[in-house]
Amino acid sequence: MNLKKGIIFDMDGTLWDSAENVAKSWCVALAKCGHGECKVTKEDMYRVMGKTMDKIAEELFPFAKGEEQKHLLQECCVIENDYLREKGGELYPKLRETMEVLKEKYHLYIVSNCQAGYIEAFLDYYQFHDLFEDIECYGNNDLPKGDNIRLVVERNHLDQAVYVGDIQGDYDATMSAGLPFIHAAYGFGTIAAEVPKIQALEDLPVVVPQVLGE
């Protein structure tokens, strides 16, 4: 019997680094909303990467409360998606080449804690729609990453799957979803557990079969 096997990817720190352009787009949005004195930097984005959007708003917009904070976040997300769809981010090396190799044996997916439209902006800018079969994110359903990982596994009827991410929150979410985890050690974080790791995306065709026991 042929098992249906999948690889589910995190976005930031795993597939690309969009921090600089995200920060620029948020500064544009804040100025539009009358908060031009509030500057968001690339370093700010690194600090909050991987958190859900509501938590990011609480950290970066402490001067705003309630509905104002929610409105600021919505404006930032809309402008960010348009900005990234036009300018992209910094891809990690050999992404397309590696995904094309992986697609010969595995089904590929993306699950992120981002806002709705963010993954689509990534796919649109780089014309990657042919690489990934399904996507899910916090912005679509307000579900935590572990639930969304499980959701993608279930609705795509995967017999085996592995999640690839770069920070502790990715690992924790993967454990809650009951999947094995591969650490993208070139990304933004470290993992407080002994886990398989890759130093570059191109390591995946070797590491994934080991993790899935092939």
Explain this structure to me?
By secondary structure, the chain is α/β, with parallel strands linked by helices. Helices cover 47% and strands 14% of the residues. The chain has 10 helices and 8 strands. It has helices at 19-32, 42-48, 53-60, 66-87, 95-102, 118-126, 138-141, 145-155, 168-177, 204-211; strands spanning 5-9, 16-17, 90-91, 107-112, 134-137, 160-165, 181-184, 197-198. The strands form 2 sheets. The protein has a 6-stranded parallel beta sheet, with helices on both faces. Helix 1 (19-32) packs across helix 4 (66-87), helix 4 packs parallel to helix 6 and helix 8 (145-155) crosses helix 9. The chain is elongated. The model has no long low-confidence stretch (mean pLDDT 95).
Topology:
Layout: E1 5-9, E2 16-17, H1 19-32, H2 42-48, H3 53-60, H4 66-87, E3 90-91, H5 95-102, E4 107-112, H6 118-126, E5 134-137, H7 138-141, H8 145-155, E6 160-165, H9 168-177, E7 181-184, E8 197-198, H10 204-211
Parallel strand pairs: 1-4, 1-6, 4-5, 6-7, 7-8
Antiparallel strand pairs: 2-3
Helix pairs in contact: 1-2, 1-4, 3-4, 4-6, 8-9
